[in-house]
Amino acid sequence: MNQKIKSLLTYFKSMRGELKKSRFKIWLRAFLLVQFSAMFSFYFVRDIAAGYFSWRSVAVVAACFIPVGALLSLVVPIKADLEVQAVTLRLDRFYLFLIWFLVVSKLIIGRVPSFAPESDFIMSAIIGIMFGRLSGICLRVHNLKKRHAKQLVPDVTPLQVLRDLRTLIWNS
Fold first, then answer.
1. Distance of CA 69 to CAs 73, 74, 99, 119, 135, Å?
2. Radius of gyration, alpha carbons of the chain
3. Contacts of 170 (CB under 8 A, 6+ apart)
4. What is the pLDDT of residue 156?
5. Assigned domain for 167 exists
6. To 5 degrees, how large is the angle CA 4–CA 8–CA 13?
7. CA angle 20, 132, 68 (to 5 degrees)
8. What is d(CA 169, CA 172) in angstroms, rounded to the nearest whole number?
9. Each residue of 52-68: b (16+ CB within 10 Å) or e?
10. What is the pLDDT of residue 84?
11. Per-residue pLDDT tens for 122-135?
């Protein structure tokens, strides 16, 4: 029984380590961006059909807020963890509060029909901020991996990879 508990704790610790890695967190942020974009597109279609906003305005506002998101990506704590051989990210509370605040503001303002353009502006800003931040994080992770390439990735030749793959396939 004690051994099962220890193995379960080890499993959860390793899973927690996996969740801290940049690849998982970047895919999670990309999923959230796609989810928000899909959800907001329903509102955009409705408001554009009603004449409150235009697709061009959505694109302009989102493009104007991409640099804000890129600047917010500089606040994200990112480090190269040589022990795990990965780049890890931590939670950025300011960004989380900002997005939460903007989404709640959009929900409140969206209830009043005369404030539909302001609601669409907020949605476009959220998409721009999320896209800019995700792009900035990807660039920072890429640069960090490039800087620590020798320490994060062991020296393996393509021939060794092919041999290992062949061994894995034949032994299966």
1. 6, 9, 11, 19, 8
2. 22
3. none
4. 47
5. yes
6. 150
7. 115
8. 5
9. bbeeebbeebbeebbee
10. 65
11. 999 999 999 999 89
How many domains does one find in the chain? 1
CA–CA distance, 129 with 151 (Å, rounded to integer)? 33
Distances (CA, A) of 120 to 36, 40, 50, 55: 13, 9, 12, 10
Q: Structural domain of residue 149, as residue ranges?
A: 21-171
Q: Which residues, listed in sequence order, are joined to residue 88 by a DSSP beta bridge?
A: 21, 79
- pTM listed for this prediction: 0.71
The answer to the question of residue 12 being in a domain is: no
φ and ψ at 81, to 5 degrees?
-95, 105
73 located within any domain:
yes
At 132, which amino acid appears?
G
Establish if 4 belongs to a structural domain.
Answer: no
Q: Provide the CB-side half-sphere exposure for 14 (13 A, CA).
A: 6
d(CA 40, CA 99) in angstroms, rounded, equals 14
| Residue spans of the chain under pLDDT 70 | 1-2, 4-22, 83-85, 149-172
**Tokens representing 118?**
């302001």
Question: Which residue carries 């393996």 as its tokens?
Answer: 156
